[in-house]
Amino acid sequence: MAVTKIGAIKTSLAVAIDYILNPEKTDNGRLVHTFGCTADGKTAEREFLDIRALGTGKGSVLAQHIKQSFKIGEITPEQALEIGVKTAERLLDNNYQYIVSTHIDKAHIHNHIIFNNIDFVNFRSFEYQKNRGGKVWEKLRNINDDLCRENNLSVIENPKNKGKCYYEWQQDYLGTSWKSKLRYIIDETIMQCTNFDEFLTLIKSKKVECVYTPNNVVKIKFRLEGQERFSRGRTLGWFYDEPQIRKRIEQYQFLKKGISGKTYKTNIIDTNKFQASKGLLHWAELQNMKEASRLINFLTTHNISNQEDIENSSTQKYNERMMLVSQLNKKQRQIDEIGDVIKLINTYEKYKAVHTGLQNSKNPSRYKKENITALHKYDDAVNKLLNLYPDKTLPRIEKLTNERNHLIEDIKELNEQYKQTVSELKELEFARQSIEDYLKVSDKSHKNELE
Description:
alpha+beta; Helix Hairpins; 3 domains; five-stranded antiparallel beta sheet; three-stranded antiparallel beta sheet; 15 helices
């Protein structure tokens, strides 16, 4: 899943380009792609302006800036860069100079795309060529959603949902709003309890005030520590109202036993409704036999001989899924921790000279006042690094970067295993449901024959 926003750059184009090219944010420039220009702020600005000089009716906009933010833990930096490049290609048709950079310095991976406001084919402005009526954001969102679907990422469905602006959707999926945090804690608690009463007790231990009044119209509401007002379960989403929380707890218990609790619509036809027509009944029975034959092939391929084998296989697959999720979460935490250390070391190195300047200054009071922000950043980085490395021996940035890259490769491999496991689990569940439906239909048919 990714969310996007687009805005105009009217001044300081070189500064904006240098910002998105920051080596600390782009893994030393590895996560950068350019088209028709150079990966350098001043040079790229000059190249943009050379094209701009050939146009007419240019207006005040120098370039456009797109930010594309991905859900935490759902994508690798390499995948994000690839999606960013494809976003630029589909939106701009390769008629504009552009730079795509992927930033990995925050918890959520995100792309920046800066492109010239004047195209190099007709030398017309982007507003004239692509954004008449101001609807380019809608086209950008559609391109973004299509790419997410193509890459098996989640997609924000119905972003114009009544009562919720698109900004709030963005904050939700980046995990920064009260509601997002509440949803996360509620989801986590549901997976840790076996019944609703246990849920009410456990969620309070997570610094969430939960008020459950079954006789009131508003049956359940939540408030995080520090949150000013309560959030009703229903306003968090239909899945967070009291009846659905109960149902989700029950379904999760099924899942832990290898049964999803979900009912699949199978291809087995209920022949009971065709008893009055021998022709239709014969057709339905033939279709069921074909489906039964397909099921037998599936079961044979997977060495399954009975219902118990299916349940055992489902349980095994579900356990594999749980293990993979745990490993993916662990790897992502390690990536985040390494990223934090790299950022701290870079901050330390960046402001070390400022700290040395204070020690050598003839007027420390004045020097400190003039460099207060830089000195605060230096002291904060030093204190955090000393907590991590009490022996004052800092790891090399190259070593940390290599470790992070290996972890990213591990995540890509684990993610493929996860997708395969989920696919196999769905197949097993579908087969189990199909067999149940077939046995029910067969049983009804035999009863009708006896009658």
